[in-house]
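Quick one, tokens below. Sequence please?
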């Protein structure tokens, strides 16, 4: 009984060892095959690059030499050529871009890109979105719309750029409808819109703002402040009147204000319950205010929050027409020790800065 049991154990060990050896050999063969495939792919890429780079440049700089038939391409080679075409297309403008678009037609690029757009390969799908946008393929506009809603940031932003390239008038409202997305930085969105016609951009942003939530309006103000600061002022006015209790929106609005016409609305926030808003008011008065704002800033020197007092003192000293004699007079008139202390502190800081510069 014991010998039989031992024989079974030996056989199990032998079979297990054989299976492990076989699996090891299979993994080794798989590794070698993958290495071979990678080398072949790199070789094909290099061959396609060497063959097609001169052709692409000829299409740009010597179109008279491109009347002959193009070299035949297999599926893999076609993918490499598309990548080369994309890289070159993104570096040229004007007539050079037009000639590359003609080459895309010769290659029957658009039908293939539409197939890639609906395929399963992520890389091919992203390439297709970029290519269809570059050639401004109008028939692909509707097919690209769902990709703007993609939760993957890179897909949605590339699709947004493609829509704007194909039809800016139709695409811009779609892009602005996604302004709430936290994964879309405002500066990135501004980069998409910076080349659009100014009137189209302002009109579309204004229309979007009419139905915007507080968060969306805040991001729209930031966006317009980057693209055209003066055109952000109506949005700021809307924020101050429509959302007077939204602290983050108001601080953005105050920080973005560049028009003195907004001063009456800004001054109304002097007693806002959020100290962050009062700080931004003091800073805005430094940029936009005049000597008539001195009484308001003097009152803000007694604010319960230290930062409000500090910014108010800085703004007070920077008002037009304020000189040392006027500051001395205010110091004598102040009865609040906190107000007097912060004014003296800011005066000393500015004197040290002035001495450091001289």
């Amino acid at each position: 009984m014991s010998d039989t049991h031992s024989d079974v154990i030996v056989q199990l060990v032998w079979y297990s060892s054989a299976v492990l050896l076989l699996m090891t050999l299979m993994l080794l063969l798989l590794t070698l095959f993958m290495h071979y495939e990678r080398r072949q792919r790199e070789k094909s890429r290099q061959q396609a690059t060497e063959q097609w780079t001169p052709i692409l440049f000829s299409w740009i700089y010597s179109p008279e030499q491109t009347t002959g038939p193009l070299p035949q391409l297999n599926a893999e080679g076609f993918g490499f050529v598309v990548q080369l075409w994309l890289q070159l297309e993104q570096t040229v403008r004007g007539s050079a871009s037009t000639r590359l678009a003609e080459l895309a037609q010769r290659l029957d690029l658009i039908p293939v890109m539409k197939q890639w757009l609906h395929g399963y390969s992520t890389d091919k799908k992203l390439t297709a979105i970029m290519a269809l946008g570059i050639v401004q393929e109008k028939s692909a506009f509707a097919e690209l719309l769902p990709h703007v809603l993609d939760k993957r940031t890179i897909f949605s932003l590339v699709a947004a750029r493609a829509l704007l390239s194909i039809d800016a008038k139709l695409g811009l409202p779609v892009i602005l409808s996604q302004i709430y997305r936290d994964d879309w930085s405002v500066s990135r969105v501004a980069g998409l819109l910076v080349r659009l016609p100014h009137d189209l951009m302002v009109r579309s942003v204004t229309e979007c703002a009419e139905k915007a939530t507080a968060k969306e309006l805040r991001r729209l103000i930031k966006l317009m402040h980057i693209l055209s600061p003066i055109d952000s002022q109506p949005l700021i006015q809307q924020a101050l009147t429509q959302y007077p209790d939204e602290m983050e929106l108001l601080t953005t609005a105050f920080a973005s204000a560049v028009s003195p016409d907004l001063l009456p609305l800004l001054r109304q926030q002097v007693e806002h319950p959020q100290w962050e808003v009062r700080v931004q008011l003091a800073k805005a008065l430094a940029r936009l205010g005049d000597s008539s704002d001195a009484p308001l800033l003097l009152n803000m020197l007694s604010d319960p929050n230290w930062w409000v007092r500090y910014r108010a003192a800085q703004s007070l000293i920077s008002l037009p027409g304020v000189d040392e004699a006027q500051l001395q007079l205010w110091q004598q008139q102040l009865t609040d020790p906190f107000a007097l202390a912060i004014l003296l502190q800011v005066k000393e800081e500015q004197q040290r800065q002035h001495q450091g510069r001289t």
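The chain has a mean pLDDT of 88. Residues 2-61 form the longest helix (60 residues).
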